[in-house]
Write a structure and sequence with these properties.
2 copies of one chain form a homodimer. The first copy, chain A, has 15 helices and 9 strands. By secondary structure, chain A is α/β, with parallel strands linked by helices. The first copy, chain A, folds into 2 domains: 169 residues, Rossmann fold, CATH 3.40.50; 203 residues, Dehydroquinate synthase-like - alpha domain (Dehydroquinate synthase-like, alpha domain, Up-down Bundle). In chain A, strand 7 and strand 8 form a beta hairpin. At the A-B interface, strand 1, strand 2, helix 8 and helix 9 of A face strand 1, strand 2, helix 8 and helix 9 of B. Strand 2 of chain A pairs antiparallel with strand 1 of chain B.
Chain lengths: 390, 390
């Protein structure tokens, strides 16, 4: 187990009707906010009206900025930064899923920064200050509601990059599982893949003596695996929706990675898919993660055996550990397919003519390696893309 | 699953040599502190010197108040409050285990309060303000390093009572597992019983649809059950000590109780033992908890079956669930005995001449009930004391 520091200070306000507390929660921080959201779904569902009513009741003034797209764009973030500066706004309320929250975090970091906000994503600058952000969550997936990270897409070259700082962890996250009833089953499934990937990026480590966080990871994975099929079968299953929503937050607030080296190669490999083909992040992960597992598995067979046995209840083949390990990978892929996700590039409609270009971009033109369970260079990443073809 | 709010903002600084960061961590909050600790063990071990060196290096002035006893007393707390007021001290650093931390929290709440600090424990007043507290932890047990609670003993009548508020959650907790190498095995075992009890008080609930927190509870219990025997066999097993220490914090920072009704009858029943006989809290819990389980088990057999199967790997008797449930309870008791803890009042040297008096005190002269899995009145509590006799 490695030394670590960990602080996840986001106040979680969880349960039915909690969006009506938005005004009260904001009021602890500010009287004037930027209200940030995505497309029309929060207006169609009535959530927008309920949040506005709650803000009005608490006497909160707001400027609106909607229009966040999936794989949120830096251009809209720049617009948000301008708006906040112009109206001297000290707080941002994000109403939506991971894209809206990540966009809000980017605006929050950009407002007090004199350079261009993309600097935080390209690695040219570190976040030293940020406006506080609050969240009303509508989609359990990215875990951004209590995480220190934000991922953004730059239309100039279609780069998708992440940044992180405890300064952009939301102050509060309002989480009402009922708000997820209207999610189409494909989006529910994409969310599951994203949540599971956040756990697996931490689970597959070479760090020794991490029993406790191993078990927390397994507990969280099993919760998702058991509840997602229930939520897909009955979208208004409160029990299932609430387990998924809370597990999705814990999957990515940092707890499950305490004391462990994390991997994150699969995320980097997937980001190139999302960036070039604008596929849903979760769908891309469902394709890439099993391929990554197959490629690296032999470097740490015992860990993949533990994953197979404890997470998937695979009957262990004591004489052939690799067989057990590979059965766990197969189960993962089968699960993704069973909830309606693509598991091959072909199913995503992606041809293999840009695999090398993606591997190049992923390794910043071949100079960087990715991952920590196994260090991967450009040729490894090409192999993983190839394994994910069909 | 119930609605909940949850915020555990304590900054965890975990790992080898982290006590040398005490000065740096304090410096974020104050330049002048009360340094609060227990008996001579931190001086004997050299920890005291290392903390002082770190404080000096960061230019932190300090007033000292040592002498906290196990089952910490309100008289010393009152002295601490006077000291802080006299020297206008804005921050308290607790170096020790749960008793020292609970004493520090009481001082922190008492300083800005015009009445007597015991009011918070008797239920006559609510904490509205408190000085910030920091912790260097030496004993994984009470979980007080990141919890919102504090338990104090009033020598006037020997009452032991608890209070709670997010305002007394420590700002930071420095946790170096190496500091626990010198703990006698009995204290290690008492700590285990305390940690397990914190989880089980939350686990045994009637709240439906709490799969996720169930699994987190099971993960944390299994971590303790697997690692405690290793730490007792080899006190300098860093891997085991670190798993125990981190699991002990998560057991009681509130996460495992999110969305669930909690019980806490066993703690209330045990507090009377500690108050009247000054027994170690963990030892008292090892005696009381299995007796409580036996008494209430038939009210929620499926939950006790899940506990037996998932936590203790009991082979399920599908035709006789109660038999499986009772095997889980037996395993719990056997485990406590196997790590050297008493499991009967007799082994604690406690006669049965004051059982009724304790039941009376526990229910505030018979007017209150305890517990939520099953509401327990005075006569129930007498039965539980009787079940724990031998």
């Amino acid at each position: 187990m490695n030394n670590f520091t960990f602080q996840s200070a986001t106040r979680i306000v969880f349960g039915k009707d909690t969006e009506c507390l938005a005004g009260t929660e904001v009021k602890r921080h500010a009287d004037r906010i930027l209200l940030h959201y995505g497309g029309g779904s929060i207006k169609k569902s009535g959530l927008y009206d309920r949040v506005i009513a709650s803000l009005n009741e608490s006497g909160i003034e707001f400027i609106e900025l909607g229009g966040v797209q999936p794989n949120p764009r830096v251009s809209l973030v720049r617009k948000g930064i301008e708006l906040c500066r112009e109206h001297d706004i000290p707080f941002i309320l994000a109403v939506g899923g991971g894209s809206v929250i990540d966009s809000a975090k980017a605006i929050a970091a950009g407002v007090p920064y004199s350079g261009d906000v993309w600097d935080f994503y390209s690695g040219e600058a570190k976040i030293e200050e940020a406006l506080p952000v609050g969240v009303v969550l509508t989609l359990p997936a990215a875990g951004s509601e209590a995480s220190s990270s934000s991922v953004l897409t730059n239309e100039d070259g279609w780069y998708k990059k992440g940044t992180g700082s405890d300064l952009i962890r939301p102050q509060f996250a309002i989480m009402n599982p009922e708000l997820t009833y209207t999610l189409p089953s494909y989006q529910t499934a994409c969310g599951a893949a994203d949540i599971m990937a956040h756990i697996m990026e931490r689970y597959f480590t070479n760090t020794a003596d991490v029993d406790f966080t191993d078990r927390l990871c397994e507990a969280t994975l099993k919760t998702i695996i058991e509840n997602i099929p229930l939520a897909i079968r009955n979208p208004e299953d409160y029990a299932a929706r609430s387990q998924i929503m809370w597990a999705g937050t814990i999957a990515h607030n940092g707890l499950l990675g305490t004391g462990r080296e994390e991997d994150w190669a699969s995320h980097a490999i997937e980001h190139e898919l999302s960036a070039l083909y604008d596929v849903a992040h979760g769908a891309g992960l469902a394709v890439i993660f099993p391929a990554w597992m197959s490629y690296v598995c032999q470097h740490n067979i015992p860990r993949f055996v533990q994953f197979a046995v404890r997470v998937w209840n695979v009957e262990q083949d004591f004489l052939n550990p690799e067989r057990t390990a590979r059965m766990g990978i197969e189960k993962t892929k089968e699960f993704f397919a069973s909830i309606g996700l693509p598991v091959t590039l072909e199913q995503l409609g992606i041809k293999d003519d840009r695999l090398e270009e993606m591997a190049d971009r992923c390794t910043n033109e071949g100079t960087l390696t990715r991952g920590s369970l196994v260090k991967l260079g450009k040729s490894d990443i090409i192999e993983i893309y190839k394994l994910s073809r069909e």
